[in-house]
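Why do we care about 3D structure at all? Because function follows from shape, and shape follows, mostly, from sequence. That is the central idea of this module. The next example makes it concrete: a single protein chain, its amino acid sequence, and then its structure expressed as tokens.
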Amino acid sequence: MLIFSALLYSRFKSAIHMDSDKFMLRFIRLVIAGMMSLLVTQATLAQERYGMAELQEELAQLDKSLSQDNLDSVIAKIDLSINKAKYEPVRKAALLTFKAEKLRFHGIFYINESLSKAFDLISYDKQPELYIYAMTVKSYEIYAYQNNPELAVKLLEDLQKKPELENIPYIHVIFLKHLLETYYKLQLFEKIPQPLFRLSQISKEFELSTNSKDLLFYLEEELAYHSSLIGDTEQAIEQYGRLAQHYEQKNHSEHIAIIYCNIANMYFLPFEEKVRYAQASLSAHNNIACSDVMEKIVWLAEIQQGDFSNVNRLMHFNPVQQIPHLNDSSAYYAGLSYLLLGNLSAAQAMADRITAEDNWERQDLLQQIYQKQGHYQAALEASQRYHQLRTAKDAEARSLMLSSFQTRLALAQEETQAAEQEKQAARIAAAEQKAKSRLHITLIVISAGVMITLILSLYLLRSRQHRIKLQQLSDTDPLTGLLNRRAFLHQARQMQRLAERQQFPLSVALLDLDFFKAINDKHGHHVGDAVLRAFAHGAKTTLRQTDIIGRFGGEEFILLATEKDPIIFAGLLQRVQRAFTHACQQDPAIGFSVSFSAGIAALEDNGATEIPDIEEAIRQADELLYRAKANGRQQVCTDSLCQRLMDTDCDLVAPGHPVTLSAE
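And the structure:
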């Protein structure tokens, strides 16, 4: 201001001899130029002042205000702040990005409107943290509204390599949430544990540093969604319930509606429960991205009960809902309503709205439409495709459940480590306090404690390794490397309880190597051992991840598979036989083919209150195994059929010809 005043004074002195009009014109121009220079200088200083700490504080304050007020009021405050930040481009970009993130469920328009303005104000070179934040919100538009999760994953994984991602915990948490959603979308279950574990770490670190638990609710939401995908609906509803209580205290109707939407959209939830949570979602808020699906669920339930008051609204789709998979679900429930009303053309129109052929909802509508039209061949094909897709969906849940064990173990270890760190910090603080008066003694004690801790740690580590090794030895057959009988039965009972809870089939097969005693007598026990190892190798390379196999005793083996159809199970054993034959022929210690016989029994309820015990199924399989032996061996028998096993594409031993080895 002093420079500006001096400049104005010097110009005023030089203009004394000018006429009044010229003097006034030059004076006005000079004042305008000075004011513009002053504004630009202030804007530049403001931009320099708004750095990392200010960005962190800004986001924290916005989240705090959001936890104390409803979304509409917070958005109004954000818009006011955006207008005030006219000459603060970095702050304005942060506000625009925060607004886009909080309105992401309200449609693609709100995301693009704010982000396009934010990207005009920032770049990665100058504001890397804010740029990562904006690109993270952009990824939601890509995978949710554009239905392109592959591109979103590539974008997010590229951002994950940026070192600046670690600078601001709030941005890192938002990033991890979106990364997890894309991994779920693409069923990249093996990638989920690491970001979920990191999300837990950052959330708890943020709580300790700021005394705020807001980010912990992001972790709770991810764990609830994870539970819903693996079919643990009880735990998912319990976790979502805690979130709903939190947001009810904050009067956040949009968050409450979204939580109930998530529950109603759970794949494993019965329809009656879906209706209840859909009604709760609409009661909280009826104009967000998932509200249209909730309305269609409620209207379908009303039509089932004879209430046709909303029939004319079935064809209406809320323009706010632009997310493809939600649009598909809306069309599905509307199509089911039209099927109840007997309006097949309208039901077909709803099926046509679901464009993806691999959508089980579309196939379900088509099979019912074709059946009512009398097109039974088309109905059968649609039904078969529908059941294939549902089976694949169930398999996805089981795969995610297996990966979730690793996630839960990592989280449990992290909690244990955090508790140990807190204890260690308390011990160090106490030691420092005592060191003021007894420094020398404390140093001796600490040194001794370190040595003792080191020795104990080494001892515990060796003990843990020894226990793990002993456990492996106790569970594993030393010759074949397969599970022994006790370990197999333990895992089989666990799988049976899981099957009862998630309603998927199980079958057990008892296998016996043909003429094994003759092999030992003719070639020696070392060849017999090689045959057993060859069978184990063939089975390991053929069976699926969800199958459980063990050595039951001698030359007997037992297999538990998630399969009910005996034809498919027999086909699985056929592949095991071929792999077994190949292993025998490739082993120089054997050099000849060996076959096996098998009996298959399904674990099904047959009208009882629960699935029979595994021991009963093994007994049935054993009886069927004896039937296979009595029929000439080298075959698999169920309660309804016996099928010959082949070593390759043709029989090694023609039907009706005797086997050269003598009977046991």
